[in-house]
Amino acid sequence: MKRKLILAKTKVAKAEMALAKVQEYLSPAELPTDLETVTDEERFLFRRIGLKMKAFLMLGRREVFDGTVQNMHFHWKHRELVKIVVKGKTFEQVKHIAISLEAESGGVLIALDKTTKGYSITFYRGKNYKRPQVLKPRNLLTRRRAMARSIELQRREALNHHISVLRHKIWKLKSQLVRYR
């Protein structure tokens, strides 16, 4: 059992190194200081319109990458709002995703709501919206690297769970040995 535990710990170290290698390509943008202000009435109306919107973007296991921001700008070409649906995450993770999308896209976060499909994040493009020259930000991960990051995170999480199960089994065996002596 202890050998399995040591082996799992070395695998976690390898997973950490692989994750760090993928993460070095990621340099998230900071929130702009000159954010556009939206009144409470506008926020209420945009939230209501955003919840009724049929057109939305799904945010999958890759989370925020350059293609997500590009699709937001494509939506803003014809609409003022973009609705992004996130499945299977906690509220804190969705809030972190929303803040990073707000920083990367330059839009204004309107609402973060729990719906039947998951969490709905609504963004407003702003009153003085001008399409950027480059729709895909260079500081985010590409589609392929975002998938590799997701796989490495999943791998690390599974290994940590495996280690906790092994520790529990070792503790159980030790307690049984003490009991039988």
Automatic annotation (TrEMBL):
Q: Does the keyword Ribonucleoprotein apply?
A: yes
> What is the superkingdom listed in this entry's lineage?
Eukaryota
Which subcellular locations apply to this protein?
Plastid, Chloroplast
Q: Name one GO biological process term.
A: mRNA processing
Assigned keywords, A-Z: Chloroplast, mRNA processing, mRNA splicing, Plastid, Repeat, Ribonucleoprotein, RNA-binding, Transit peptide
Q: Does the keyword Repressor apply?
A: no
Q: Which Pfam families match?
A: CRS1_YhbY
One cellular component term from this protein's GO annotations in UniProt:
chloroplast
Tell me the ranges covered by the CRM domain, including all copies. 36-136
Q: What is its main location?
A: plastid
Q: Which GO terms describe its molecular function?
A: mRNA binding
Protein known as = CRM domain-containing protein
Q: Which organism is it from?
A: Aegilops tauschii subsp. strangulata (Goatgrass)
State the taxonomy lineage.
Eukaryota, Viridiplantae, Streptophyta, Embryophyta, Tracheophyta
